[in-house]
């Protein structure tokens, strides 16, 4: 590849800067310490230029808004507003960016970090929305009664036909005026050194713009378009539906007007297809490249996934010589842990002559990203940020089992504390449902008993009915699992939201869409079952749906034929499909590791779907919750800052090999320029301050008798570790479960909260509590058992349910439970806890009453416990403490390792008793002081390590280890020359390139049929969980064993090369669930037949099959790279059998 494609513009740009540098209208620091080296004449000339620029800025900023705007930058001496920040007196943000000594860069021209200048202004825009009498009512009550809304519905009428116009905030009332909603627009720009910058505020719009709009542009759109007209990159950071697409369209229009090519990238193929359709309608000369589909590849505007663009860059595609602009849609996707690295690679590899439009959700560190772009591409990057929402939002809470919604954040963004507390108080007491029940976490279902013994509809049923009665539709209901989406939709299946004409239109669209499918596919259960729901105006959207159904539902929703859509959070990515109302079925989610509250960024992204621009005065967000929230947590979620754009950069073998293969760049080149490295280096000043403060804090702690205390502390620390090992063994399920009978006394401690001695009521395994659902594989054996204990706690806490413990959604700490002494006022409650919280097991058992529901029965146990504590006091001269089970005599733990542990504990206890401070009255105070100093010193060491890492090239050690693996496996030489194996691995990006290359060179595929090849390759593209037990026939089990043996060899080489690889996890990562399904499909089985072979959702099967086709295509290229024609033909045959004509798996997108 010609390196000039990447760097050709660099030297020319430098010459241009040197030639024009003296004519800049913004002053620049030209020396490393920020001092100026200009002559007095130059300074006078620049002052005049600056005054002229400020005059221009004033007039231009007046044009930006119909109203007078206040600006953020204010002269400290006289308080006058500055239209453009004077960069000769840098702002605090500019000062923090003074040049510093950079890591030695690759030879290809990485300049010192530029002294970033800011051309900053802010503008405010005001819009009016109708105000209603309901605001006054909400200000007092803040509650909307859901049950009354249902009862108010006219008997027998179709909800969707209601003609009553209801104000958007939910209560009828006469309009009493208008409410003013203001929003701000902030502009900044990051500049490379010596760039001849003219303030954006002095930009004069083109007489004949590249594209004209039939509406008045918002201030942020005008600022971004001005940047594009000047030929300068821009990052637009704004909420969903704010109008960012206008900016992208203008960049495309300008390229087409100038005869240039432009690339529009999106994170997912579905979004690329949708964007292609939209842009083709607007501009005609548009093409699409997604890997699956290529349409009009010679077009001036090309829509593609970011992976395709990266591949074109690595291959040195001629197209890239002609590209002038690249639009990165949803750039905040760069933080995605798996695929985010693709964005960074692509941005770094693009030529410096290219300009960019970055479209993003609101990100708080947008300027940091712009500085990175300015540094690596030596060009300005503007940031236009707005908190503008075309439709302001009202946020409501709905407590489980409650009868009303509570306004907690109004359209002005005010958090209403009183309403929040009312919602918490209304939280249903009817908790403790079966954690595996279909309605888990969603309150009572239809027909179940509510408080007071009454039967009634489910919570979601009530909310949807209210929404439809009050014309708050269309509504998107976000659930956090595919099964829950379908379960909730089925609860609505008896409701009618569409008119007769709308039903007919739904049927027409649906039948036309599926008409191209085989008859056998048209009768699939998913297709047959969903039509009745769609006709009623109810939709489902999740990753497990057939892709054609997802697209049908999207089209119906856009046309207003779906009134209620149940969706997972993937629906919030990119697709332009707003609704009037958004409902969250929960405020907690499982993120693959734990149950946690939604982050503010996730909440902002999903709730942003509420409110349709030009149609709704307000958008409505309703959050269902089934456990108490802290006000701070709720505020953070609803009003918190959006998630930062943090780099997810990580090394991969395909990246390393491609960079070693391309002339003029290297893996080190990528590491030095990645956003990950930039963010790390940018943290240096803050880390230095933290380190200075931590050192001062550590030095301030003085410990008398430090030497003696140190001796005691070290021995005590060692003894604590041994005692932890002792507890782990004695409470292990193998030894402890036998003794956890009802009435057994156990000591419970969670983190630092000691609940003391409690009474066992019962215990059970986690998957029993979840009705057969297995525990997570990463859990310890202690965490797989739940012990129900009767304990004495302070009043007012929220007792976690069995479901909470199974899901991990509540802990003893988060529930607000606190232990109290038996003599103090409190209450006896049964609390489920994990076995891992059990610290000691007593030899004593109490006889428990037959039932513990009554308060008297629990108080009886409390009195018996108090008698035991008096009989076995833990303090004083006669202190014996509650007797414990003997681990050897009672529990029969007799293995040699345990006996050795007991011996070590005895020796350390003896040594501890001989220390100078043992028994001293000053020991507790000395111990705490020494511990504080140790903690402070540990913090200092941790900060030193982080600072060293920030000063070095991040991940460089990992790169060395990966290169070692490549050399040992024969992919590269000792001189980093890519061998034949390495060239083959460069062709593979969809699967594990090392393992697949090893399998090719070891001849694994040579003896397999095309069907077997496809089945074996399915292990590389499927990663979803399945609860099905897989039994493979030998024709698949044999090749699988060979593949697993190769994987173990690679894992061993990786471990020997000092990479942190777990051999068993690595091998288990190749999932076998779809092997038989792929085999049968390639042999001609129907789709309905292969669906019966697995418990995987149909949509997930199709997604895996499409990825498999992409992988097989790459395997063809790999075989071709080594000239193995026979193997190439075998892979072609496998792909041919996989990609059957007119099959539902490979049916074309409805957007194309």
TrEMBL record:
Residues 225-381 form the Helicase ATP-binding domain. Keywords: ATP-binding, Coiled coil, Helicase, Hydrolase, Nucleotide-binding, Nucleus, rRNA processing. Its main location: nucleus. Residues 443-453 have a biased composition (Basic residues). GO terms for molecular function: ATP binding; hydrolase activity; RNA binding; RNA helicase activity. GO terms for cellular component: TRAMP complex. Residues 64-74, 97-111 have a biased composition (Basic and acidic residues). This is Putative MTR4-involved in nucleocytoplasmic transport of mRNA.
């Amino acid at each position: 590849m010609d390196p000039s494609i990447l760097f050709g513009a660099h030297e020319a740009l430098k010459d241009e800067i040197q030639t024009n540098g003296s004519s800049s209208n913004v002053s620049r620091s030209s020396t490393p310490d920020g001092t100026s080296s200009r002559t007095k004449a130059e300074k006078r000339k620049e002052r005049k230029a600056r005054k002229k620029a400020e005059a221009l800025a004033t007039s231009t900023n007046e044009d930006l808004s119909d109203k007078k705007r206040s600006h953020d930058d204010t002269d400290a001496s006289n308080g006058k507003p500055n239209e453009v920040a004077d960069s000769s007196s840098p702002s605090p943000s500019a000062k923090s960016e003074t040049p510093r000594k950079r890591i030695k860069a690759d030879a290809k021209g990485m300049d010192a970090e530029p002294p970033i200048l800011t051309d900053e202004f802010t503008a405010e825009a005001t819009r009016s929305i109708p105000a209603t009498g309901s605001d006054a009512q909400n200000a007092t009550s803040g509650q909307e009664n859901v049950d009354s809304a249902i009862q108010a519905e006219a008997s027998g009428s179709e909800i969707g036909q209601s003609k009553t116009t209801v104000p958007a905030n939910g209560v009828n009332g006469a309009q009493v005026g208008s409410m003013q909603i203001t929003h701000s627009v902030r502009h900044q720009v990051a500049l490379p050194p010596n760039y001849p910058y003219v303030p954006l505020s002095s930009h004069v719009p083109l007489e004949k713009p590249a594209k004209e709009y039939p509406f008045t542009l918002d201030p942020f759109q005008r600022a971004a378009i001005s940047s594009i007209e000047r030929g300068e990159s821009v990052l637009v950071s704004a909420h969903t539906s704010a109008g960012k697409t206008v900016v992208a369209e203008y960049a495309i229009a300008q390229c087409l007007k100038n005869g240039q090519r432009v690339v529009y990238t999106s994170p997912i193929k579905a979004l690329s297809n949708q964007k292609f359709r939209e842009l083709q309608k607007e501009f005609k000369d548009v093409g699409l490249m997604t890997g699956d589909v290529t349409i009009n590849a010679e077009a001036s505007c090309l829509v593609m996934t970011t992976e395709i663009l990266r591949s074109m860059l690595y291959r040195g595609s001629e197209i890239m010589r002609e590209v002038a602009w690249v639009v990165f849609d949803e750039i905040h996707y760069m933080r995605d842990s798996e695929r985010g690295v693709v964005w960074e690679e692509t941005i770094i590899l693009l030529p410096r002559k290219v300009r960019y439009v970055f479209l993003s959700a609101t990100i708080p560190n947008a300027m940091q990203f712009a500085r990175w772009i300015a540094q690596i591409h030596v060009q300005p990057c503007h940031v236009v940020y707005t908190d503008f929402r075309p439709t302001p939002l009202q946020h409501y809470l709905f407590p489980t089992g409650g009868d009303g919604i509570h306004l907690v954040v109004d359209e002005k963004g005010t958090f209403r504390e009183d309403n929040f507390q009312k919602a918490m108080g209304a939280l249903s007491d009817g908790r403790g449902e079966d954690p595996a029940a279909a309605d888990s976490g969603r309150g009572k279902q239809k027909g179940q008993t509510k408080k007071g013994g009454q039967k009634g509809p489910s919570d979601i049923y009530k909310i949807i009915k209210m929404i439809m009665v009050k014309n708050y539709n269309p509504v998107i209901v976000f659930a956090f699992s595919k099964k829950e989406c379908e379960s909730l939709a089925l609860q609505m299946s008896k409701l009618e939201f569409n008119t007769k004409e709308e039903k007919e239109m739904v049927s027409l669209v649906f039948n036309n869409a599926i008409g191209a499918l085989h008859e056998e596919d048209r009768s699939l259960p998913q297709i047959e079952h969903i039509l009745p729901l769609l006709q009623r105006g109810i939709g489902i959207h999740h990753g497990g749906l057939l892709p054609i159904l997802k697209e049908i539902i999207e089209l119906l929703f856009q046309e207003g034929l779906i009134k209620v859509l149940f969706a997972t959070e993937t629906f919030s990515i990119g697709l332009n499909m707003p609704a009037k109302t958004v409902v969250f079925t929960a405020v907690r989610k499982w993120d693959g590791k734990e149950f946690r509250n939604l982050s503010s960024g996730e909440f902002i992204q999903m709730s942003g779907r509420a409110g349709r621009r030009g149609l709704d005065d307000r958008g409505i967000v309703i959050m269902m919750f089934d456990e108490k929230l802290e006000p701070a947590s709720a505020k953070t979620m609803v009003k918190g800052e959006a998630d930062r754009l943090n780099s997810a950069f990580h090394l991969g073998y395909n990246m390393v090999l491609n960079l070693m293969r391309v002339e003029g760049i290297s893996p080190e080149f990528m590491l030095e320029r990645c956003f990950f490295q930039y963010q790390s280096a940018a943290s240096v000043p803050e880390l230095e301050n933290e380190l200075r403060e931590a050192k001062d804090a550590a030095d301030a702690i003085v410990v008398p008798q430090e030497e003696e205390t140190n001796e005691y502390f070290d021995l005590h620390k060692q003894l604590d570790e041994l005692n932890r090992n002792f507890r782990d063994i004695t409470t292990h399920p193998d030894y402890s479960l036998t003794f956890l009978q009802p009435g057994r006394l156990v000591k419970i401690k969670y983190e630092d909260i000691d609940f003391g001695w409690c009474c066992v009521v019962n215990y059970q395994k986690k998957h029993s509590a979840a009705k057969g659902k297995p525990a997570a594989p990463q859990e310890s054996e202690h965490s797989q058992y739940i012990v129900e204990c009767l304990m004495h706690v302070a009043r007012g806490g929220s007792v976690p349910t069995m479901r909470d413990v199974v899901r991990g959604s509540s802990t003893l700490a988060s529930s607000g439970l606190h232990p109290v002494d038996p003599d103090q006022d409190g209450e006896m409650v049964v609390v489920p806890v994990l076995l891992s919280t059990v610290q000691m097991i007593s030899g004593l058992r109490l006889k428990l009453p037959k039932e513990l529901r009554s308060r008297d029965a629990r108080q009886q146990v409390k009195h018996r416990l108090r008698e035991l504590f008096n009989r076995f006091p833990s303090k004083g001269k006669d202190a014996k403490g509650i007797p414990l089970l003997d681990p050897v005599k009672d529990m029969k733990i007799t293995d040699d390792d345990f006996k050795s542990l007991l011996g070590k504990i005895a020796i350390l206890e003896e040594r501890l008793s001989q220390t100078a401070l043992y028994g001293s009255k000053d020991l507790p105070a000395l111990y705490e002081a020494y511990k504080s100093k140790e903690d402070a010193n540990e913090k200092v060491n941790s900060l030193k390590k982080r600072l060293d890492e920030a000063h070095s090239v991040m991940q460089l050690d990992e790169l060395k280890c990966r290169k070692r693996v490549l050399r040992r496996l024969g992919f590269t030489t000792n001189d980093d020359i890519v061998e034949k194996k390495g060239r083959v691995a460069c062709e593979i990006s969809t699967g594990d390139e090392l393992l697949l290359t090893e399998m090719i060179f070891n001849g694994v595929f040579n003896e397999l049929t095309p069907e077997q090849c496809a089945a074996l390759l399915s292990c590389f593209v499927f990663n979803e969980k399945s609860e099905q037990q897989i039994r493979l026939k030998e024709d698949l089990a044999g090749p699988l064993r060979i593949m697993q043996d190769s994987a173990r060899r690679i894992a061993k080489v990786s471990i020997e090369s000092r990479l942190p690889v777990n051999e068993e996890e690595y091998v288990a990562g190749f999932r076998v669930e779809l092997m038989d399904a792929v085999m049968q499909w390639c042999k001609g089985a129907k789709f309905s037949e292969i669906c019966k072979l697995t418990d995987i959702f149909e949509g997930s099967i199709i997604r895996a099959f499409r990825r498999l086709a992409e992988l097989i295509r790459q395997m063809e290229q790999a075989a071709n790279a080594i000239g193995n024609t026979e193997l190439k033909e075998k892979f072609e045959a496998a792909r041919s059998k996989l990609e059957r004509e007119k099959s539902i798996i490979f049916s074309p997108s409805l957007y194309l």
